[in-house]
Write a structure and sequence with these properties.
Mean pLDDT of chain A: 90
Order of helices and strands of chain B: EEEEEEEEEEE
Helix content of chain A: under 10%
Largest sheet of chain B: 6 strands, mixed
Order of helices and strands of chain A: EEEEEEEEEEE
Oligomer: heterodimer
Low-confidence stretches of chain B: none
Structural class of chain B: mainly beta
Strand content of chain A: over 45%
Radius of gyration of chain B: 13 Å
Number of helices of chain B: 0
Largest sheet of chain A: 7 strands, mixed
Helix content of chain B: under 10%
Distance between the termini of chain A: 34 Å
Radius of gyration of chain A: 13 Å
Mean pLDDT of chain B: 94
Number of strands of chain A: 11
Number of helices of chain A: 0
Low-confidence stretches of chain A: none
Chain lengths: 115, 110
């Protein structure tokens, strides 16, 4: 069973479109994250939710909106896509926001290409 | 400003040739130094957490060490399957998020 699963794995879309990426974890973790990895491999935190509550909201355009219907799911909706949004987006989870002893568990990523 | 810098950007080794990867950090009140492995097309996979200077952790051919300014990931007698990008991240006392380095791409040639 996949611990953190995100869909789709690949997403190619035109500028101006709206798209969503879904993430689900079956680890019973309380905290989930969205990261963006650019072409230089830097991982940048975008959002973090703890038990459905937003706790980290880094400086990202408000075209990006996370939604957590329950603590096992964290979706990312992107409006009016731009070329610069092309990247790999990773979902991750950890037991709590404090206890990261065992690190984060990452999904396999969604490669978003905006054309 | 909290920062994590990894070197080298890329490292090519022959199978069996031991070496080390470096992770330098400037983080206020280190709460953990993390090493991850990332294979192409996959998410980072957790390897180690180190908390205090002098601490060491080992897993198969990998050993991570920590000083007050940097961490090293030593790889002993590597095999081609050790080829991956190795990411380092640090967490400080000021917030919960991890500060990530850009990674070292390790290539082990048979």
């Amino acid at each position: 069973d996949t611990a953190v699963s995100q869909t789709p794995k690949y997403l190619v879309t035109q500028m101006g479109n709206d798209k969503s990426i879904k993430c689900e974890q079956n680890l019973g973790h309380d905290t989930m994250y969205w990261y963006k990895q650019d072409s230089k491999k830097f991982l940048k935190i975008m959002f973090s939710y703890n038990n459905k509550e937003l706790i980290i909201n880094e400086t990202v355009p408000n075209r990006f909106s996370p939604k957590s219907p329950d603590k096992a799911h964290l979706n990312l909706h992107i409006n009016s896509l731009e070329l610069g949004d092309s990247a790999v987006y990773f979902c991750a989870s950890s037991p709590t926001q404090d206890r990261v002893t065992y690190g984060y568990t990452f999904g396999s990523g969604t490669r978003l290409t905006v054309v | 400003e909290d920062q994590v810098t990894q070197s080298p950007e890329a490292l090519r080794l022959q199978e069996g040739e031991s070496s080390s990867l470096n992770c330098s950090y400037t983080v206020s009140g280190l709460r953990g130094l993390f090493w991850y492995r990332q294979d192409p097309g996959k998410g980072p996979e957790f390897l180690f957490t180190l908390y205090s200077a002098g601490e060491e952790k080992e897993k198969e051919r990998l050993k991570a060490t920590l000083t007050k300014k940097e961490s090293f990931l030593h790889i002993t007698a590597p095999k081609p399957e050790d080829s991956a990008t190795y990411l380092c991240a640090a967490r400080g006392e000021s917030n919960y998020q991890l500060i990530w380095g850009a990674g070292t791409k390790l290539i082990i040639k048979p």
